Task: structure prediction
Amino acid sequence: MITGKRILLIISGGIAAYKSLALIRRLKERGASVRCVLTSGGAQFVTPLSVAALSEDAVYQDLFSLKDESEMGHIRLSREADLLVVAPASADLMAKMANGHANDLASTILLATDKPVLIAPAMNTRMWDHPATQRNFQTLIGDGLHAIGPGAGDLACGEVGSGRMSEPLEIVAAIEGILSGGPDTLHGRPLQGRRAIVTSGPTYEAIDPVRYLANRSSGKQGHAIAAALADLGAEVVLVAGPNNLADPTGVTVRDIESAAQMLAACESALPADIAVCAAAVADWRVAGEAEQKMKKDGSGQPPALNLVENPDILATLSKLNGTRPGLVVGFSAETETVVEHARAKRARKGCDWIVANDVGAGTGVMGGDQNTVHLITADGEENWPTMAKDAVATALARRIAEFFDADFDAD
Ligand code: CTP
Result:
């Protein structure tokens, strides 16, 4: 129900702006009030007069208009709305939003708002597919915006492909979904409201203040999984061992060094619905780390390092009582009989799923960008094709979304 809700509709430049006129009508029919902001590009496609007539309100166009600012400042426009809808969201306006520009009324309102924002992208298919637009779109999703579409089909420019703005009634349904606070069925955010913990990277186990034991994990797979879960709307805490990667957008990162610190950071991130342990945790640490740098004693004999076993984070999370995450996923890096070892590991550690991969010599998995994995669940195993680590992360995140919402289609 959207009766009585206040929608601020921002119409940016694009042929799809004509559909926004129908959107105003569909919203008004349902009892919502609609106030409109028209960008200069939008005004090339629909007139302020038709927008004003349909919305039965003034149309706001100019950031520096004395009249507009005195009657209705840009902050008030956002404050007096329950939801901001950008339809059509042009490539240019999305780029401005993703980069925090505020050089016209629409971008200023979007930067100043603390209200939910829904974007309905619409543009030429090549513009949509361009890496810059895809990057901006992912940034906006990571920032917590809602999105609907674009759909695929015949475009006004005569080409065929993705870029078509969603139909007014689809946008209305998305608005109803957001404003009802119900399960989010929108494009790409099925994990909204779910909390996830992801471990990533190696751990460093100190020998003395300058030396440590470590392994070759880059953290690429774990970081990509954290990003993919966040893209699907999850609130993600990434517990990361030392790495050279950028922090994924929209993810809370807890940097740690040792396995003990990793476990403590995971425990303090509970409760969570999802735990994905992708870190290459050192199995052992040095008992009694030396307080000072260890010196050669002149005997020619190396010092003996006394190793003790580290806590198993995956097994600890899997065996929690009461606060066990609903889905616990482990990784299994093997160099031989990959699936058999992974099955045994799943049983031993008590996790729900194991993502098994072959890290043997010649696979290039450790530190590389590709991964060939098998997903082991209670129901059996799936052999996934070799994919980029980002693609493995996306596929896994979608499977996780499907686990929590059987209606969500992971394929
Ligand atoms: N793991 C963990 N804490 C540890 C060791 C491993 O959380 N102390 C997790 C890893 O993040 C991964 C899974 O357990 O999800 C498997 O780790 P792996 O090192 O491959 O397995 P091991 O338990 O070490 O078994 P094995 O030595 O037989 O390979």
